[in-house]
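hiii so my PI (J.) wants the whole complex modelled not just the main chain, which honestly fair. so below is everything: two entries, each one labled with what it is. i double checked the lines twice but i was tired so who knows lol
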Amino acid sequence: LAKTTQPISMDSYEGQEVNITCSHNNIATNDYITWYQQFPSQGPRFIIQGYKTKVTNEVASLFIPADRKSSTLSLPRVSLSDTAVYYCLVVINTGGFKTIFGAGTRLFVKA
Amino acid sequence: GAVVSQHPSRVICKSGTSVKIECRSLDFQATTMFWYRQFPKKSLMLMATSNEGSKATYEQGVEKDKFLINHASLTLSTLTVTSAHPEDSSFYICSARDPGLTRNEQFFGPGTRLTVL
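here's the output for the full assembly
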């Protein structure tokens, strides 16, 4: 399973765009890049998943360069409620393969 | 999206007792569920993979006789912490994948806060 590296913490202000970058140098051909969000005392929640280039949904965008050795989660116009821990994972997109979590990035949004 | 529930949400027990935590997939069937443990300010640590109708697969360092897992149906997995001690106090989270989805998205339960006195 590919290991991921992301910043331990980030601070931002309401209304700003936040970009969290994750390194996954050993990503395999069948791996997909997935991001989860976790609030205190809750289970993680899926945010977005992608394989290459750019993926956008109603809450975030995911940018993946051609070599796929890194990815950037972009949160547009964050609010106080986006304060959470964000986990970057690489997972095989077949079957029920286990998901291994890295340390995550603790995002703190200030007013 | 798919929903996974856990029961109880929090439990306090005396040292030496056993505690059972239930994980249910409410609107889908899950042949595989996962159990995690999370200590304060730390990431989730995968404990074991629960397989319906067969033995669970434990991660290295996790005692299978202490953390008993039973996956008797396609919607229910249970984790029993046997002879619990204060060091077992933690946040236990389960997850499952909806096989009806094409992407490998895990749906997580709300977690169970275990406090061992």
